From TrEMBL:
InterPro entries: Glyco_trans_2-like, Nucleotide-diphossugar_trans. This is Glycosyltransferase family 2 protein. It holds the Pfam family Glycos_transf_2. It comes from the Bacteria. Residues 6-194 form the Glycosyltransferase 2-like domain.
Length: 263
């Protein structure tokens, strides 16, 4: 089978190079096309990625290709990933954050698992912090109360809704169907991803992964496949400053208008 992956970057050259190196080093069982899309970085990330390819720091291995695409403007997360959509000729495509690191051939593992489960159109592995702690991420459909709690955790009376959102207390050690696949690391069946039209580019940042999950669920099943793992540094900008929080709120409004409000 053929694999492809895209990493969208903005002012994060060192991190993006580390992520790309880990993808190239560990993805060996199947042909891979890796796309590095720079969203008009102001710190020279685009040029640094091109230089890393030219110097051999990002040298593709056997049956691998690497392409750097430099955008003239910052088009946002989803639109950045959509840049490669017309070029994809793979069986399975991987949407990766620049703060993802592989320690094993997780791309091949997930692709082979999805091939063995034809109804699966989207999946993610277990994600952990660099110290090995497993990350608690949304697994159920996006709704208001857990989103409020995740921004304002002192509102302890909302914790039970967040627990349901992340399926706390349920067995997450075995593969199971989910309603929310994080955009930090998502595997998609390329044909279904194309049929869905990729990401909704009306989202500049945040919640576009929840939106994509809903579109993919119209075409098949979405799975958590926890026996496969990857490291996710997880900067959580929306939890640290006002600007990203405002952007996330706008994206939530778009999501609820499109998919229906869930309290």
């Amino acid at each position: 089978m053929n694999l492809s992956a895209s990493i969208v970057t903005y002012n994060d050259q060192a991190e993006a190079i580390r992520a790309a190196v880990s993808v190239l080093e560990h993805t060996r069982r199947h042909p891979l096309a890796l796309y590095l899309v720079d969203n008009a970085s102001t710190d020279g990330t685009g040029k640094a990625l091109e230089a890393a390819v030219a110097s051999g720091k990002l040298a593709p291995g056997p049956r691998q290709t690497v392409r750097v695409i430099r955008k003239e403007t910052n088009v946002g997360f989803g639109a950045g990933h959509n840049t490669v959509l017309p070029e994809l000729a793979s069986d399975y495509h991987f949407i990766l954050n620049p703060d993802i690191l592989l320690r094993e051939d997780t791309l091949s593992d997930l692709a082979e698992w999805m091939q063995a489960h034809p109804a699966a159109v989207m999946a993610r592995p277990s994600l952990c912090f660099p110290d090995g702690r497993v990350q608690v991420l949304p697994l159920r459909r996006c709704s208001l109360r857990p989103m409020v709690y995740r921004q304002l955790s002192f509102l302890s009376f909302l914790k039970k809704y967040n627990d349901a959102y992340v399926m706390a207390g349920e067995d997450l050690t075995r593969p199971r169907q989910i309603e929310f696949c994080t955009g930090s690391f998502a595997a998609v069946r390329t044909s279904a991803f194309k049929a869905a039209g990729g990401f909704d580019e009306g989202y500049f940042m945040y919640v576009e992964d929840a939106d994509l999950t809903q579109k993919m669920l119209q075409r098949g099943q979405v799975w958590l496949v926890p026996q496969y793992t990857a490291v996710h540094v997880w900067h959580r900008a929306a939890h640290r400053s006002l600007g990203p929080m405002v952007q996330q709120t706008r994206s939530l409004c778009r999501y609820f208008k499109k998919w229906g409000f869930k309290f």
